[in-house]
Amino acid sequence: MAYNEQDPSRLYRIAYEAYSKFATNISRCSSLEEVGIVSKRHLKYLLNFHIIRVAMEQDERFLFFSLKKNESWYDFKNKTELFPFEKELYERDIPIKTSDIPPAFIEGTMEQKDLKNPVLWAWSLKKNNRKVIVSLLSDDQKPFASGDIDILKLTADAFEAKFQELFLKKQLDRKNRSLSKALDTIQLQNEKIQKIVDNQKQIIEERTQEILSQNEKLLRISALNSHNVREPLSRIQGIIQLFDVLDDKTCREELIPKLKISADEMDKVLQEVILMASKELAELKAKKL
Question: What is the 3-state secondary structure (H, E, C) of 181-209?
């Protein structure tokens, strides 16, 4: 049995198949450019229109997407870029059907005189707490009827879902880039900190070696002082004790010469100690400079 062209069930199946192809292809799009290509290819099998325009609210701005003369256009703009009838829709949510076509709406697409009984349809839809304004221009050459509104709303749902997906992907990419930059900054700071730490370690090691070297020199001076100075000092102390037990002649003839020898020896040792200490002090001052 052949189907009559006005058979509702057949028309429904055709519309369903056309929408399925459109929705499937839209879901595979990875960019707004691809959405435009799919729309040009498939929307003509779903709806009759000269111009279709979607304005989706997104973070206090609007994503504008339009298809006219088989050409797609999209951009992010502020609310001020809405047409007056779109602003009215945004505020009142009352659908519009009018033959009063704003010249700016068709500018660059066609002339008003080329349209036969034009009608502007427009709706404000709320999707996921965002407003989506859909407008469509038709005429007798490309008629649009109330019965097409359901398929138009399904089309708007597909657009909204894909636009939101692409927007979230863009946000995620932006955050990933920001995170990557932050990680690079942290890595750079860590490298700087590590250089500072390594430099401090080197300075500490150098200072430690200087202190050890100075301590060794001080130990040598201390050893010289304790050994070389102690020996003539002990002899002097012993000779002095003999002055109490020996007579004056013996003291003058024997003890005083020995006392002088020991004193000279002690003076020589002290001069060596002073010379060594002065030399070490001079080297230390030179290093600090």
Answer: HHHHHHHHHHHHHHHHHHHHHHHHHHHHH
SS3 111: coil
Report pLDDT for 229: 73
Contact 120, 104 (CB under 8 A): no
**180-288: CATH number:** 1.10.287
| Closest by CA position to 222, among listed 262, 181, 277 | 277
pTM value is 0.60
- Return averaged pLDDT per consecutive 10 residues of the chain, 289 residues in all: 51 80 91 91 89 88 87 87 92 93 88 91 87 94 90 89 86 84 87 89 86 75 68 81 81 82 83 76 62
Distances (CA, A) of 207 to 92, 159, 248, 283: 79, 71, 59, 14
Q: Which amino acid is at 141?
A: Q
Q: Which CATH class is domain 8-178?
A: alpha beta
Task: Cite the residue boundaries of each domain of the chain with CATH code 3.30.450.40.
Answer: 8-178
